[in-house]
Amino acid sequence: MQEEMKASAWFEDLYKQNEDSHENIPWARRDVNPLLQTYLDENKEHKGKALVIGCGLGDDAFALSNAGYETLAIDISQTALDIAQKRFSGTDITYEKQDIFDMPDKYFEHFDFIFEAFTVQSLPREFRTKMIQAVARSVAKEGELLVVAHKKELSDGGPPWPLTQVEIDQFLDNNLKEISSELVTEPSHISKTRFRILYKKTL
What we know:
This protein is of the alpha/beta class. It has helices spanning 2-8, 10-17, 34-42, 59-67, 78-87, 128-137, 165-168, and strands at 49-53, 70-75, 94-97, 111-117, 139-150, 176-185, 193-201. 40% of the residues are buried.
């Protein structure tokens, strides 16, 4: 566990350095991820417990809460959580400093919907299988998981390190079945292609 904590420690440093201005946080849109918004628009009923992994500045958690979910937003960075809570004060969102590798047992198969965007790819490749397993185990039976990640192209510079097809396929090894899958093209210095895959937890 110590190695995983070291690998993710740079998140807190980055948020701390940009606590007053968020311009240099590369993934901070300050708006809901459009690939999550598509899910919310396509599905009319939103209820139950939702989890946002690596919630950052909180926009995705806010969108899920507004849609009707009982929402938990987690991040390894306390500074990120403080910023998100301040930005969306007065909402029913619960914020917790949590490491997805070390989630409490009470969250096993707990969430009806989980949103994971760009967090797996932010860790070195040697930790990815373990993180994918940790994400999958938090999905409730019959629950859904929406994954958004950059697809690996030629460059392997990072962090973040875009996911290969082999890595994204590991979600299928954890009692998840693919409901929909698409590759989305969007300008980016990381990778111009993104995975957007919706999974459902099998019994």
